[in-house]
Specification:
CATH topology of the largest domain: Serine Threonine Protein Phosphatase 5, Tetratricopeptide repeat
Protein name: Eukaryotic translation initiation factor 5
Organism: [Candida] jaroonii
Largest sheet: 4 strands, antiparallel
Shape: elongated
Number of domains: 3
Strand order of the largest sheet: 1-2-4-3
CATH class of the largest domain: Mainly Alpha
Structural class: alpha+beta
Oligomer: single chain
Distance between the termini: 38 Å
Order of helices and strands: EEHHEEHEEEHHHEHHHHHHHHHEH
Keywords: Initiation factor, Protein biosynthesis
Helix content: 40-55%
């Protein structure tokens, strides 16, 4: 990125600072020059103006002062929150601003309370084809007639524990979670359609022991690949999920077992890769999961089914975290909105007993409702 170059023009009340090379600076950062200019205006408390590729700020501002301000823009709106790489793109999803890192794949939140965030929501960046990205659902994204921006604004007058919306994605007590927890109490009479499918790869302890008895007279190679993959992962991580093989080794094992293209593979992974820290672990295995799911509907359904089986049979303590788990797989673009909505509105015996399936979906209802409301809001706009 070239250093900022500025030039002062005019005199008296009409004195202005021209940023000579703002186009080059903005191009190096991968951001529209108007975003940088508006940021300068908000940070320096000065009016800005763009006219025929000339970028002006009222008053006298030295290049060093502008460079310092630019560092703030880079930290807040460019650098990845995880690896600090500048190769990011701004995404707008349901009224939230995110930096999507092309280096590590991490999605980091942008503070919605900053004035520039409001400007970006109203003036979304263009994609590679020059088409403006959608900025719908900027209001009512959490339900109750309030936007994320409104909630963040109200929250700024509250206690200091919720002072930074930028950390919302990592805080169990973030705004969305609070809303979900508040709505969860009203779900006792929820009605959900029933789907009576009844097949799945069961990686519960009882199922593994039962299969082991059946396979006493078979070689390992003769048993199905999904069972081998699941039992291998469970054996490797018997003491802790930190002992799991690397994603590369897991991928090689899947290739060796010749089950790369099968949706049941991701279902088995959903039952064996996670423990109580499932939200963080989804992010850790994001590259592997995306490579296997590949945006295919059957694989997405299988992954959700595997999570349902793991949570419903092996770790029911996670049931109360189902909304946040769904938010994570949706936010990371592992599972599409359509698949989540279809899953959340139909009880199925495919992966667990009907009563457990209904219990898991009741826990998911606040997130499903939020997704439906945001979808309706988008349709109306």
């Amino acid at each position: 990125m070239p250093p900022i170059q500025s030039k002062v023009e005019g005199r008296g009340n009409g004195i202005k600072t021209v940023i000579v090379n703002l186009n080059e600076v903005a191009r190096a950062l991968g951001r529209p020059p108007t975003y940088v200019l508006k940021f300068f205006g908000y940070e320096l408390g000065a009016l800005t103006n763009e006219s025929q590729d000339r970028y002006l700020i009222n008053g006298v501002h030295e290049a060093g002062e502008l460079q310092d301000s630019l560092d703030g823009f880079i930290n807040k709106f460019v650098l990845c929150g995880s690896c600090k790489n500048p190769e990011t793109e701004i995404q707008i999803k349901k009224g939230l601003l995110q930096r999507d890192c092309k280096a590590c794949g991490h999605l980091s939140m942008i503070d919605i309370r900053h004035k520039l965030s409001t400007y970006i929501l109203k003036n979304p960046p263009s994609d590679k084809k020059g088409k403006k990205k959608s900025a719908t659902a900027t209001a009512n994204v959490v339900g109750g007639g309030k936007s994320i921006a409104d909630l963040a604004k109200n929250d700024s007058n509250g206690d200091s524990a919720n002072n930074s919306f930028a950390d919302a994605g990592d805080d169990d007590d973030d705004i969305l979670t609070k809303k979900i927890n508040a709505e969860a109490a009203a779900l006792a009479n929820a009605k959900i359609e029933v789907n009576d499918d009844d097949w799945a790869v069961d990686m519960s302890k009882e199922a593994i022991e039962a299969r082991a008895k059946e396979l006493d007279n078979l070689t390992l190679a003769e048993s199905d690949g999904y069972t081998q993959l699941g039992e291998w992962l469970l054996k490797e991580s018997k003491d802790s999920k930190d002992d799991l093989p690397s994603d590369i080794d897991i991928y090689k094992k899947i290739m060796e077992l010749e089950i790369l293209e099968n949706p049941e593979t991701v279902q088995v992974l959903a039952q064996t890769l996670f423990d109580d820290d499932v939200v963080e672990q989804i992010d850790e295995h994001l590259g592997l999961l995306k490579k296997l799911i590949k945006g295919e509907e059957e694989s997405e359904k299988a992954f959700l089914g595997g999570l349902e089986r793991y949570i419903g049979l092996e770790n029911q303590g996670l049931i109360e975290k189902v909304p946040k788990i769904l938010m994570t797989v949706y936010d990371k673009e592992l599972i599409s909105e359509e698949v989540i909505l279809n899953w959340g509105t139909k009880v199925s015996k495919k992966y667990v007993a009907k009563d457990i399936s209904k219990k898991v979906r009741k826990a998911a209802k606040p997130f499903i409702s939020w997704l439906q409301e945001a979808d309706e809001e988008s349709d109306e706009e």
